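Notes, p. 3: input format for complexes.
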Amino acid sequence: MGYIKEKFKVKADELNAEVKDLVKNHGTRKIEDVTLAQVYQGMRGITGLVTETSLLDANEGIRFRGYSIPELREKLPKVKGGAEPLPEGLFYLMLIGELPSDADVQYLSDLWESRSEVPAHVFAAIDALPVSAHPMTQFTVGVMALQTESVFAKEYAEGMNKKDYWSYMYDDAIDLIARLPRIAAYIYRRKYKDGKHIAPNNQLDWAGNFAHMLGYDNEGFKELMRLYMVIHADHEGGNVSAHTTHLVGSALSDAYLSFAAGMNGLAGPLHGLANQEVIKWILSMREELGGGMPTKQQIEDYVRKTLSEGKVVPGYGHAVLRKTDPRFTAQMEFAKKHLADDELVKIVWLVYETVPPILQDLGKVKNPWPNVDAHSGALLVHYGLVEYEFYTVLFGVSRALGVLASLTWDRALGFSLERPKSVTTEWMKQFVEGK
Ligand code: FCX
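Output follows (435 residues plus FCX):
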């Protein structure tokens, strides 16, 4: 079975007993009241989901199994001579709930490498799309084509016992994570590099190999990919990509179906597509100003113009966070260490000084601070990955780690079909009138 899978089973049995006990003894406890406004406004602030892998604090930002991003950068295993955490380690932490050893991380690297073969029909499905199709469209088509490989779907069709759901979901999660870098790199090389594909290097770690297959063998870029894959992996359960994956999975859809659904949510401009929108916004500001480094005043004018056109400032604001996103800070630290002289990076930092007070003055923006997407594009451009339409695919490959670890937990804990109640506005009016 593999020792990580066995370890997961032990942890899952323990937690299952605790959850059963909680529901049996405290099932009628009220967590909070729900207001009418919350129901209309995106269910913001309603505690309605359980996600084991990470927890978001409005001021402190994300913690993965209790560990903050700075702690993970320090404590998770790294490649020899490297300084950034390996995503394999984060996946282990989210799945098992404990920090991994170097050997655990090596085991996962080897496991993913051994499962990374992508069948030819997946590439053929992607090739059936015009090259002009958005990379996220090509990505979800690739994931959907890969669904033929789902062991969960196959076992379910043959009459699987409920008790085994978690086991086949685990296998699908491992297989899918192992194969995603190959699919994503294929799309990148197909769309931007005349279809000149690069064979995987099985000596490299998961993120290092992804960088290699994209065509960036520079050690700095590999380090960036390791950090990028860690910080984008999970953001508790209510965000659109995580919630969608969880919701679709609750219908016992397999990992491929559920993840593809989540990725269609990530492709929205208020969620993962914001990373391409940020760099587009910065580049068009620079172009409009005739190139070079803008002044703070020029940035301020451009921000006001964006707002006056009824648009949002991409990369700023958050549904839950109320401070600068630690994922932004981690990227800023990476940039200070490796590329402090980069002009685009300096613009990102000047935008950071300029935007928050303007958004604050609007009086309605709950969080004027930058989120993860405000910084990532400038780092990628520095290393030559300038094709910003591809950025959300990078986010998606990383997000697989969190949402698929969670999906495995969902099946291990026997979570129910998700089916909240909805009402009509007529119902609301009658409710308000006390009828
Ligand atoms: N620029 C301009 N206006 C903004 C804004 C921004 N960056 N952020 C919020 N606002 C506006 C909202 O549009 C809303 O206006 P309205 O009342 O006229 O409709 C008002 O402020 C209140 O919104 P708020 O409650 O603060 O924010 P929400 O929880 O509704 O939305 C997002 C959160 C992230 C969607 C919002 O801040 C936004 O659109 N930001 C820009 C896009 C972005 O960066 N998205 C990435 C988010 C994240 F990191 C990710 O998921 O990847």
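The first strand starts at residue 54 and ends at 57.
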